[in-house]
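Q: What structure does this chain adopt?
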Amino acid sequence: MKLLAITSCPNGIAHTYMAAENLQKAADRLGIQMKIETQGGIGVENELTEEDIREADGIIIAADRAVNKDRFIGKRLLVVGVQDGIRKPEELIQKVRNGDVPVYHSKSKTVAENNQQKKQNPIYRHLMNGVSFMVPFIVVGGLLIAIAVTLGGEKTPQGLVIPDASFWKTIEQIGGASFTFMVPILAGYIAYSIADKPGLVPGMIGGYIAATGSFYGSESGAGFLGGIIAGFLAGYIALGIKKIKIPKAIQPIMPIIIIPVFASLIVGLAFVLIIGAPVAQVFDSLTAWLAGMKGSSSILLALILGAMVSFDMGGPVNKVAFLFGSAMIGEGNYEIMGPIAAAICIPPIGMGLATFLRKGKFQVSEREMGKAAFTMGLFGITEGAIPFAAQDPIRVIPSVMAGSMTGSVIAMIGHVGDRVAHGGPIVAVLGAVDNVFMFFVAVIGGSMVTAILVNVLKKDISKLDISEVAEMKEVSATIEEPHVQQETQKESKQV
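A:
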């Protein structure tokens, strides 16, 4: 049997590749040939060819982003979320293997696909599509500005300032240019997710108008809130125009002229005449409130953000907090993203430390996962802790939440800022973090809380009941590397 798969997540970073890896391992264990196409942040990799599709007995799509399915007409197709690809790879493969998957027909959705779409929140899916395209612009802008200020800034009573005639002033301006695209890109790709290509232009135009207050007589724009509203408005207006029945002679120019022009006019005029000024006022009030947070109110915010980041480790709740911090970067408020940047890396680093500190609490496969999780944490990939949470959620999730909340509060008290929409020690090394010392204090403190707490809650492997050991082995077998399995078998034979 030959199966194909496609994996994709909203940000196209961790979940995309974790799902692909777990599906491939499950296929290898079951003796099934599988080729997996990943649609990640750097584009399509290992693309499925026409020959692959022709020879395939079935296809699995594990994605939280829109994936074109027209090339799979006439094939058995299973559509699920990316989390199912990570956590239930064998179950998905067995479904296709047993023929429990319907054949896909163009323009018609299977029962399974409809059920999957009901499970997924379309608003979240469209929003995350916009965020995934927006984040690189914030990262590039933040890093370039941070590098320019660090290397070319001169101390003045107002802080570090780059002289106008300096080469580093040009670098700072390039970084600033990257930031100007943030809201239009967010809005454009929200609309693109809703209405496909016809929604892109009106979304970007609406996003630009939302970010430019001069269109509706406001000193400042409507910010990311306006961008989100513009994106959804443009997307659904474009989608509505697409559904209008028109003569065949006009159909060829619908996606390139009629839909973009009319949708852009409607969205633009709506913002200029009605929506822009009120949303800008709300956004200004929100920004001022956050900037003025002091004492207990700022600590409460840090606790909430830390809990959200670590609760589902890259899932919807995590992404809401991440989007909030990213948007504040665009408004020049870096002390919201600072605590988030610390909290992001604590779950994987903390779980990695836990496996190093108390090896008797973890099996061989878990200790191997700990090394990978620790490394992922250094690069700000929260998802590195997911395998531990999947195996033992009752003990792991409270532990990582406690650690992230601790680190987030320390970072907030220490006035840690982050100019880049990312987290982990990597952003500090690249110079994007303000108050680096307190950032590392927050990360180390939070990681130690996670490591100590999870080790207190977990039992030693030797003290577990036989049934518990069997259950843990069964779960861990789904994520073990082949060579780790062989080493474990050798150890068992020797004993």
